[in-house]
Amino acid sequence: MKVKWLNTIPKSMTGVSWGVPWKKGELSREESLCLMNDKNEKIPLQSWPTAFWPDGSVKWTGHSAVLNGQSQSYEIRIGDNVTSDLAVQVIERNEQIHVDTGILQVAINKIGTNIIEEITSNGKRIANHLKLIAKKEFRKEERERKVIEEIDLESEIEEVKIEKSGIIRNVIKITGHHKFLHDKQQTGLPFKLRLYFYAGTATIKIVHTFFYDGNPQKDYIKGIGIEAAPHIEGENWNRHVCLGGDVGIYPEPAQLLLTRRHQRAKGLYNKQISGEMIDLHDAQYKQIRDHAEQNAEWNDFKLIQDSADHYQIMKRTNKECSWITSTHGTRSKGLLYTGGKNGGLAFGLRNFWQKFPSSIEVSGLTGEQPKMKLWFWSPDANAMDLRHYNTKTHVLSAYEGFDEMRATPYGIANTSEVYLNCYTSPPTHDELTVKMDEWQSPLVLVCEPQYYYDSNALGVWSLPDKTHPVKGKIEEQLDNAILFYKEEMEQRKWYGYWHYGDVMHTYDSVRHQWMYDIGGFAWQNTELVPNIWLWNAFLRSGREDIFIMAEAMTRHTSEVDCYHFGEYAGLGSRHNVIHWGCGCKEARISMAGLHKTYYFLTTDERVGDLLEEVRDADQSILSLDPMREFYPRDEHQTHARVGPDWAAFCSNWFTALERTEEVRYYDKIMSGMNVLKGLPMRLLSGPTFGYDPSTSKLIHMGDGNEGSYHMVIAFGAPQTWFEIADAFEDNEWKDMLVEFGEFYSLSNDEKLKRSNRTLHDKLFPLPMLAAGMVAYAAAAKRDKNLAEKAWDLLLNNEISQMCLPIEKETISVWQNLNEVPGITTNTTSQWCLNTMIALELIGEHVSDLQFKKVLERQECHKK
After folding, report:
1. By its UniProt entry, which PANTHER family does this protein fall under (predicted)?
2. CB-based contact 516:493 (threshold 8 Å)
3. Which residues have a Cβ under 8 Å from the Cβ of 158 and sit 6 or more positions away?
4. Is the peptide bond before 644 cis (omega within 30 degrees of 0)?
5. CB atoms within 10 A of CB 808
6. Residues in contact with 657: Cβ distance below 8 Å, sequence separation at least 6, in sequence order
7. Residue 850 — very low, low, confident or very high, per pLDDT cuts 50/70/90?
C-alpha cells in the first residue's frame, strides 16, 4: 500500500501519525506491518488497529513514524517491522510521569497546577512550569456605573494517564479544571489536554480542549491559554523574541545594539537582528557595549490577532509604562520563540488567525525566568459573550425548532492544536519559518483516491471520471460547489474561535448576504451532512484544500455544535443564529458518521473521544423526545423517527462496533432492523416510532404518521445504511433500501396503490434528497428507466432546487461581491452527495439530453 504526503513535507525529523483502510479479509490482527521508503529501506513503524470488519479482519490501522522529507512517498507492507535506535521511554511514579524521547526529558505532574514541571535536554534545562491559564470577567451595574473585574485562574490537575504507549509515539492525557487564584475553592472551566511525544524529536504536540460549564448571563471568559517559563541565558542584547508574521519572522531583542553614535555598530547590529549571539566582552567593543547598555530594556512583547485580517505587535519596558506599537500585519502564523545563548523555546498555535482573537506574548524577558503565554482567546479582546441573540424564539417566522428556549452553551467545547519545540542552541530565522509553516499545515500521510475507493471501507462514492463528456460536466459542477464554499469562507470571513469550520445555511440575494440573523437559516451546524460531502470529496480527489475544509468543519461541528456533558450530553444543536441556540437538540447533529473519517485518517484521539461520547446517545432522548411536539402524551417512553433519529443511532452503534467489536452494538442495530423487517411496509413504515432505549426497540405506531420521509434520508442515513448493508452482507436489508429508493420515485397514484392508500406524495417532498437511494435501487434492479429518473432528480432544477450550473455573479453593493443568488447549503450538500453516489452506481445512464437541459437553463439565465 502506497502512502504519500498530503502536501507539506517536513524538512527535519518529525513525528507523524496517520491511518489507512484495508479490504475485508486482507489483514489479520496477528500480522505485523512495516514501512518502506522510496529507496526500499525499512523505517521503524508503530501500528495499531482502529477498526475491524465483521469477519474479524482489520478494517483500519493507525500508524506513527518519525520521518523527514527525504522520501516523497512510502509503502506499508505486511511483514516484520524493523527496530528503532531511538525509543520513547516512559516511567510512571507516584506523583509524576517521566518521558524521555532521546532528545527531551519531560517531567509531567499528576497533581497540582503545573502540568509539565520541567523540560530538559541532556541535562540542560529548557523550560518549566507549563500550565493552563484563564481569566474570567465579572460585570456589575452600580448606579449608572459599569464595574468590570477580571479574575485569574490556573489549571488544577484531576487525572493523568498514559493513554497510548509505544516505542515511537506516546500520548499522555490530562484532565482537570481551572481554579481561581484568589479563592482556590472555586473551580470551573474543565479541560482535557493531550501531550504527544515522538522518539528522537524535540517537539511536543499539545491538543487542548476547553469546556464551557458556566452561566452565559454572568460567566464571561476573558482569556483562555497556556503558559510556560523558558530558561534563558545571556546578556539582554542576546535575549530574543521571534514572532511569526504573515510569511516570515519578526525579531526583537530585549536590548538593541543600535545607538545614537553606533548606528550600525560595526555590523554587529545586523547580526543581532538576524538572531546571532554577539560577544561584546572584547576590549574593542567596550564603547559599543557601554552605549548599548544605556538603551531601553524591553521586557514584554505581544502579538494580538484581533481579526482574520489584522494583527498588531507591541512591546513595553515594564508594567508601569505604556505599550508601544511595533508594527501591524494581516495574518500571523502564530509562532512565538523566546531564547538566549543557550537556545530557547518555541510555541506555535495551529489556525492562529483563523480562530481569532488569539495572541502570543512574552513577559519579563530580561529577568531570571521569563514567561511565554499563548492565548486561544486573547484577553486583549472583548470577553466571550455566549448569551443567546434574543430572549424569545421565532419558530413560525424564522424556522427555529421549538418554542422552548434551550439556547445554552453549557457543555460545549473547543479544541486547539499547539506545538512546543525546544532548542539547545539559537535557531535561525529560516529554521523558525520552516517550523512555523509545518505547524500550520496538515502534516499527514494519505493514500491515493483509488486505494480508498478499492478498500470499500467508507460506503458508496465514485472516483472522478472526466473522460465521458457528460460526466466531465457534472464533475465540473462538483468542483465548482467546493470552490464556491472555499472562496465564500474567505469572502464572508467565516472565521473566529467559535465559528471557524462552519458555513452558513441560506443565502439572501436581496441583501446580498447570508441569512446570518434569521433563526434556523443562519449557521449550518451539520444540517444535511456537509461534513460527509467534504470528506467524500477529499477521498475521491486527495486534495489538501478540501482536507483542510473538512478538518476545520469536523473540529468545529463535533465540539461547538455538540454537548459533552450536562442535560443534552451526546446530542447536538440544530442550525441557528447562535451555534447552540436552537431548541432542537438531536442525535443527527452529533452522530459518529459525521466525524469518523477524520478519526480514521488521522488517528486523532480527541475525535476518538467524541465517537465514544455518542455511542449511547439514544439514552438521551428519554429526557428530550425529538417528537415531543407531535406526541407529547402517549404510551411510549419516547419516540424516534426511523431517520434521522434511529439512523443516527445506527451510525453511532456501527462506528462503536467497528472500533470495539462489542457485540451489544451489533445487537442494537439488529434490534431495530428486525422490527422493520417484520413490518408489512418494512423501511417505509412509520416514519415515527415509539422507542425503548433499554432494548433499542422501535415500536410501530402506524404508517404515514408525523415526520415526513425526506427527513429519513437527508441526514446521512443512506451513507450509514449502505455501509451497514455491505459490512453485514445482509441481502434483506439491501432489498429494503432498494424498495425505499424505488418507492420515492413512484407517482402519487402508484404510491397510494402500493401502500393500500396510506402513503402519498405529500409525505415524500424534496425528491432530490432521495436521488442516491433511487440510484441504489436502479443499480440493484438494473433498471434503466429508474436510473434515468434518478438523474432527472439531480439534473432538473425544478425538482432538485439546485442552482445548476453553479455560476457566480459579480455585483457592486457595499463592496464588490461574487454571489450565487439562489444557493443553499442544504441543497448543495445533498446534491453533491447524491451525485457522487449516482456517478458510481448509474453513471453509464446519464445522458447528453439530460445535461443539455441544464445548459439550456444556463442560456435562459443569460437572456
Report:
1. CONCANAVALIN A-LIKE LECTIN/GLUCANASE, TAT PATHWAY SIGNAL SEQUENCE DOMAIN PROTEIN
2. no
3. 175, 176, 177
4. yes
5. 16
6. 665, 666, 669
7. low
600-610 CB burial, b ≥16 within 10 A, e <16: bbbbbbbbbbb
Percent of the chain with pLDDT over 70: 97
Q: Cell numbers at residue 525, please? A: 451546524
- Peptide linkage before 357 cis (omega within 30 of 0): yes
Within 10 angstroms of residue 541's Cβ, the number of other Cβ atoms is 18
Alpha helices in 71-120, H assignment, sequence order: none
C-alpha cell, 831: 446534491
* The three three-digit cell numbers of residue 772, written as one number: 442516491
Q: How is residue 485 annotated by DSSP?
A: H
Task: Answer yes or no: is pLDDT of 846 > 70.
Answer: yes
602 has a pLDDT exceeding 80: yes
Count, in order, helices (H) and strands (E) of the chain: 22, 37
What is residue 855's predicted lDDT score, i.e. its pLDDT?
A: 59
* pLDDT band at 857; cut points 50, 70, 90: low
- Spell 843-854 as b/e; 16+ CB within 10 A means b: bebbeeebbebb
Q: Which of 519, 525, 468 is nearest to 501 (CA)?
A: 525
| DSSP annotation string for 761-818 | GGGS--GGGGHHHHHHHHHHHT-HHHHHHHHHHHH-HHHH---SS---EEEESSSEEE
C-alpha 550/C-alpha 784 separation (Å) is 35
* Strand order across the beta sheet in which 638-641 lies: 638-641, 688-692, 697-699
Residue type, 354: Q
| CB distance 530 to 825 below 8 Å | yes
Q: Which helix (H) or strand (E) holds 650?
A: helix 647-660
* Cα 752 from Cα 755, distance rounded (Å): 5
User: Coil, helix or strand for 189?
Assistant: strand
More confident residue, 185 or 233: 233
- Say how many CA atoms lie within 13 Å of 517 toward its Cβ: 3
**Nearest-angstrom CA–CA distance, 682 and 198:** 52
CB 1 within 8 A of CB 35: no
Q: Does 861 have pLDDT greater than 50?
A: no
Place 186 in a pLDDT band, splitting at 50, 70 and 90. Answer: confident
